[in-house]
Amino acid sequence: MAVAGKVAPLGNYPAVKCFGDLIYVSGISARLPDNSVAGVDQIGGQVKGNAAIQTQVILDKLKSLLEEHGSGLDKCLDVTAFLTDMGDFPAFNRVYAEHFQIETGPARTTIAVKALPKPGMVVELKVVAGRR
Q1: Domain membership flag for residue 71
Q2: Is the alpha carbon torsion for 15, 116, 62, 111 positive or negative?
Q3: What is the pLDDT of residue 22?
Q4: What is the Cα–Cα distance from 97 to 4, expressed in whole angstroms?
Q5: What is the span of the domain harbouring residue 31?
Q6: Is residue 34 part of a domain?
Q7: Quick one: which H or E segment has residue 22?
């Protein structure tokens, strides 16, 4: 159940787990409080996700979540990105690069996956960050 505009996890796990000065963020997607997914269109009867829009929504959500826990995007240490189609990598990477610099940004791994939990969901991030 979503609380105050937040999206509840789809399973029995916390959205965030803090341990000492580290913040572990469970997989974060472009799923919205009404359980729809941002950046999804129905085209000719097919569900199509927009990686650029979803990446921006995810990074906006991540920024807010980290700030609630005394951190920020500048404190991200490690990002694992999951894409359902590596053809979306350029769009994902372009938006990602607007938020992180190569010299100061987090380590990152990008993995292609067969599917994500909701139709049209094409990007998910798992993040480890430090506290301020």
Answers
A1: yes
A2: positive
A3: 98
A4: 30
A5: 16-130
A6: yes
A7: strand 22-28
Q: What is the model's pTM?
A: 0.92
Provide the Cα torsion 12, 22, 74, 102; round to 10°: -90
**Residues 6 or more apart whose Cβ sits within 8 Å of residue 78:** 106, 107, 108, 127, 128
Residues 34, 53: Cα–Cα separation, whole Å: 17
Contact present, 104 and 31 (Cβ < 8 Å): no
What are 92's strand-pairing partners?
A: none
The pLDDT tens digits for 51-68 are: 999 999 999 999 999 999
Q: What is the tens place of the pLDDT at every residue in 73-127? A: 999 999 999 999 999 999 999 999 999 999 999 999 999 999 999 999 999 999 9
Is residue 106 in a domain? yes
Decide: 67 and 74 in contact? Cβ < 8 Å. no
Number of domains in the chain: 1
Q: What is the CATH number of the domain that holds 85?
A: 3.30.1330.40
